[in-house]
Amino acid sequence: MSDIGVLTTFFKAIIDASRFYKNPEFETIQLHGGQIPDSDTRARAVPIYQTASFCFRDADHAAEVFNMNDPAFAYTRLSNPTIAAFEQRMAQLEGGTAAVATGSGQGAQFVAVAALVRAGDNIVSSLNPSFFQLIFSISMFVIPHHVCAHSRTVLYLAIWKNFGVSVNFVSSADPDAFAAAIDENTKAIFIEVMGNPSLVMFDIASLAEVAHNHRIPLIVDNTFGVGGYLIRPFDHGADIIIHSATKWIGGHGTTIGGVIIDSGKFDWHSGKFPALTSPYRGVVYSEKFGSNAYAAKVRTDMAFTGSCMNPFGAFLLLQGLETLSLRAERHSANGMALAKWLVKHPKVAWVSYHGLESNEFHQLAKKLMRSGLFGGMVNFAIKGGLPKACKFINSLKLVSNLANIGDAKTLITQPGATISVLGEEDAALTGITEDMLRLSTGLEAINDIIADFEGAFEVTFSEDEVVSPAID
């Protein structure tokens, strides 16, 4: 059976306005998008179709599915009704035309890029640790380079050199620096909507202009955009969005997942993307799928690499989506309150939060983010360096020390622990300092979060008299 033959597209992301009296808003789409109650059972919730495969009506029907003339479900590695509901809902929330779910956010990064490149190509990327993870995950055919002020190469992964694709890392948010890193073999610009963990922000519209001037797409990891509720990159000219759905979309730390969303607006007919415009086993994606050519190619690559989502995981993510806007507002409120409290604390060395007027990205955040909301991510450092930072983390009782963000529970971690992996110079380029603490504020009562911090400060600086600031 041919995998390309049973490719299932399910491009139904455009909201059917006739279902309602008006075009639904975000808060309504997060509940109703991608689903019409089943005509047989009338089930209100999206059912979990926990099955590996689906029956064909007859031999002729199977042939139509194999030839991609019928988008019927065939095999869950390609698509599944539960997964399709999640994909369509995400595409609707972000304003795209199609989406493809993956087994993890890392899988989404890999497939989003792999669909565009071949040996000898490169992409231009912002410099951030999460993309380093992507490089390690696809090291069988990627040879990364840093493109910094002196265009020096500092990292090589030379496995399978004959399949080499290079990554030109840019250490600046300046659009001109990205433009300077592009050459005739560049196939995309890749950025995070916010650097992780640096929280650096990028002017999406300016970078989209740079990309389009070079006839390449702008790919934005919008994980920190909270499912499109805080930031919608397509509104600023981005072409492809990816998410680690593990984070705010799921919101409860219960499952791993990723998603790739196609804007459907990029013109692939520049001669730079033969995988989309040339025949592949009798199929030309741009002709067969039109504006959804990229999404179709991504689905094929997702199926080939086995990086598919499972139905129960999709169900859990759908449950998370239903409260996404409410959680985003609480994350933002708690983030702002805690950041203001930390700024006043005598034992805090510095605080980075986009909602603070003193933050270097405050004005850009106001431009990109939903009015009055700045998310729940707070970076800070306490006085006394690494020893005090470790003691502080170890003294917390409510806040969890673990490697995740976007959870309903407040989480903290120390990015400086990765310095030994990246090296001090590369860590500095990504904005990581030894004393940095990364905080993902949760949904608990803000007074309880602050009480946990107060207690940890008292233990950490037990030899000093610590006077905690009042709560605003």
UniProtKB/TrEMBL annotation:
It comes from the Eukaryota. Gene3D superfamilies: Aspartate Aminotransferase, domain 1 (3.90.1150.10), Type I PLP-dependent aspartate aminotransferase-like (Major domain) (3.40.640.10). SUPFAM superfamilies: PLP-dependent transferases. Its cofactor is pyridoxal 5'-phosphate. GO terms for molecular function: cysteine synthase activity; O-acetylhomoserine aminocarboxypropyltransferase activity; pyridoxal phosphate binding. The modification N6-(pyridoxal phosphate)lysine is found at K247. Keywords: Pyridoxal phosphate, Transferase. The keyword DNA repair does not apply. GO terms for biological process: cysteine biosynthetic process from serine; L-homocysteine biosynthetic process; transsulfuration. GO terms for cellular component: cytoplasm. PROSITE patterns: CYS_MET_METAB_PP. Pfam families: Cys_Met_Meta_PP (PF01053). The keyword Transferase applies. Belongs to the trans-sulfuration enzymes family. This is Predicted protein. It comes from Laccaria bicolor (strain S238N-H82 / ATCC MYA-4686) (Bicoloured deceiver).
